[in-house]
């Protein structure tokens, strides 16, 4: 499955992070401020182990979407992982590092994208119902 655009890729990342219980998920559209990426996805993990699980899940999702991962930066016990998928950069933090680096403040001119809308499952269209037609019941002809 090839991802058609960067917003679709953001949706995939958000769903994967949400399913793995990432906290404080936020998406910033930085396309007007950055020449290297269109979106920043920020999420908090509860521990180093949780951050690793989030990263592994994102790798699986991006691989399944045939999306090239430009790079992954994570220092042992740093509490911060960055995944670069070119049009989308994902930053995974422990809560301490999220508060310390406050990337949302660095990108305060960016437009925040509603995560709730990204996670919403589109409603399936109900099939059109046929108008009730009167069907005549075939009655067998009496035999003579």
The CATH fourth-level homologous superfamily: Beta Polymerase, domain 2
Radius of gyration: 24 Å
CATH class term: Alpha Beta
Q: Indicate the overall shape.
A: elongated
In the sheet with the most strands, the strands line up as: 3-4-5-2-1-6
Main sheet properties = 6 strands, mixed
Number of separate structural domains: 1
CATH third-tier fold name: Beta Polymerase, domain 2
> Helix/strand/pairing class, anyone?
alpha+beta
Describe the fold and architecture.
The protein has 144 residues and is α+β, with helices and mostly antiparallel strands. The protein has one domain (6-119): Beta Polymerase, domain 2 (2-Layer Sandwich). The protein has five helices and six strands. It has a six-stranded mixed sheet with strand order 3-4-5-2-1-6. A hairpin with a 3-residue loop joins β4 and β5 (88-94). α1 crosses α2 (48-64). It starts with 5 loop residues before the first helix and ends in a 25-residue tail after the last helix.
């Amino acid at each position: 499955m090839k991802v058609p655009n960067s917003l679709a890729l953001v949706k995939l990342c958000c769903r994967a992070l949400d399913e793995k219980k990432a906290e404080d998920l936020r998406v910033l559209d930085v396309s007007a401020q950055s020449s290297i990426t269109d979106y920043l996805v920020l999420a908090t993990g509860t521990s180093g182990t949780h951050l690793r699980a989030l990263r592994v899940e994102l790798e699986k999702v991006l691989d399944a979407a045939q999306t090239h991962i430009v790079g992954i930066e994570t220092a042992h016990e740093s509490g911060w992982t960055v995944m670069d998928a070119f049009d989308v950069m994902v930053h995974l933090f422990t809560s301490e590092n999220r508060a310390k680096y406050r990337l949302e403040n660095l990108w305060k001119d960016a437009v925040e994208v509603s995560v709730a809308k990204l996670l919403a499952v589109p409603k399936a269209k109900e099939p059109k119902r046929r108008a009730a037609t009167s069907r005549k019941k075939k009655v067998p002809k009496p035999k003579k």
